[in-house]
Design goal:
Length: 201
């Protein structure tokens, strides 16, 4: 005789399936290891390959992908990652001033007393006991270069205009005139370059 399923068993099974799929999405965004996320979500598998295959199928499911994107959004919001925050942190390193490490009498301030914009520009090295051994500023020039690149400040500049005389003019010049022209060639080049810069501004 065929056994009857308890009333509501189908609904409970579907609910458990949806919960497990959402759990897979949550676990996946932790380390983006599909096989590990599959096992942590509660799926039972005997072999690693079978977990990888099943996880791959889940990653192609539109509903699971939507859950993963939602979890990624939550994760980024939790750790406050945004383009603005990245630029802000880079700017703190670029604008770091070592004088901010000192108090009014010229004595070093403890790390806990440093303003946030100063403390976040420093790398901390700890000793074996977990105490602060050394504070090292991050690479200031690298941060400046990154900001300059972001702001498009590193565009190649056009070469300055060249000072030249046409052959007809040269033919009418005396030797003395040519010598004087060569002596002042550098000054004329700078003058022309300056006019070109002011004219393009």
């Amino acid at each position: 005789m065929k056994k009857r399923r308890p009333h509501g068993a189908t609904g409970n099974s579907q609910l458990a399936k949806e919960i497990r799929r959402k759990r897979f999405a949550t676990e996946f965004v932790k380390d983006f290891n599909a096989s590990a996320a599959y096992r942590r979500a509660g799926y039972k598998t005997r072999h690693f390959n079978s977990a990888a295959t099943a996880a791959c199928k889940l990653l192609h499911d539109p509903e699971v992908l939507a859950s993963i994107r939602a979890e990624e959004g939550k994760h980024l919001h939790t750790i406050s990652v945004s383009a603005g925050r990245v630029i802000e942190e880079t700017a703190r390193i670029a604008h770091f001033d070592p004088r901010d490490l000192l108090d009014a009498s010229g004595q070093p301030l403890p790390l806990a007393a440093l303003p946030t914009h100063v403390a976040t520009a420093l790398g901390v090295e700890l000793d074996a006991d977990g105490k602060i051994k050394k504070l090292t500023p991050y690479d200031k020039m690298e941060a400046i270069a990154l900001l300059a690149k972001h702001l498009n400040l590193l565009k190649d500049q056009p070469p300055p205009p060249q000072w030249t005389l046409d052959p007809a003019t040269l033919a009418t010049m005396t030797t003395e005139d040519l010598e004087r022209a060569l002596q002042h060639a550098d000054a004329i080049q700078k003058l022309l370059a300056g006019k070109a810069s002011s004219g393009g501004a």
